Amino acid sequence: MREYKMRRGEHLEDRVPDMKAFVEEYFGAVTDTEDYNGNDLYVVDEPENPVFDRVVAGTVSYGSKKDKLALHIDEKPAEEVIAGGHVDAAEDAVAAKNDFLEEATDRDAKARRDSLKRSVEDDPDAPDNV
Questions:
Q1: Is the distance from CB of 43 to CB of 55 less than 8 angstroms?
Q2: Measuring CA to CA, which residue among 71, 62, 80 is closest to residue 100?
Q3: How much is the pTM?
Q4: Cα–Cα distance measured from residue 30 to residue 20, given in angstroms and rounded to the nearest whole number
Q5: Which helix (H) or strand (E) holds 79?
Q6: Measured between alpha carbons, how far is residue 76 from residues 82, 103, 115 in Å?
Q7: Which residues contact 94 (CB under 8 A, 6 or more apart)?
Q8: How far is CA 25 from CA 21, 29, 60, 94, in A?
Q9: pLDDT tens-digit profile of 26-54?
Q10: Cα distances (Å, whole numbers) of residue 3 to 46, 50, 55, 72
Q11: FRET pair for 46, CA 20 to 30 Å: which of 21, 29, 52, 108?
């Protein structure tokens, strides 16, 4: 499960007031919920995009800290996607994931990557060659 933080001064509940509807808009009908660190996340067992096998997304609250967006996507193996004739859907899958994250966090892929690099650099347990 990967967690995404908001831009400075932004709050997830302001950008996404109805998380369930937001998840359904991008990935398909919510079929269940799943516990993650004491938070109920929405599960889409049959996503609309044939590249995705299962999607888990929602809000993770940390009490006094700002909420974060949690997202985990299980994807089908490339061989299965190609054999099923869904090669074009792979591009749509990447766009759906990036659009979902950007609309929720107001951070594009480059900003999210840079943030991830900084968090690894600041991690005292990370190996020196990362």
A1: yes
A2: 71
A3: 0.81
A4: 7
A5: helix 78-83
A6: 10, 25, 27
A7: none
A8: 6, 8, 19, 15
A9: 999 999 999 999 999 999 999 999 999 99
A10: 22, 24, 14, 9
A11: 108
55 token code pair: 């999607």
| Lookup: tokens for 13 | 């509940």
Residue 42: phi and psi, rounded to 5, are: -85, 140
Asked whether 89 and 96 are in contact (CB, 8 A), the reply is no
pLDDT in tens, 59-98: 999 887 889 999 999 999 988 888 888 888 888 999 999 9
The candidate with the shortest Cα–Cα distance to 48, out of 70, 80, 85, 23, is 23
Predicted local distance difference test score (pLDDT) of residue 28: 95
Tell me the β-bridge partners of 3.
70
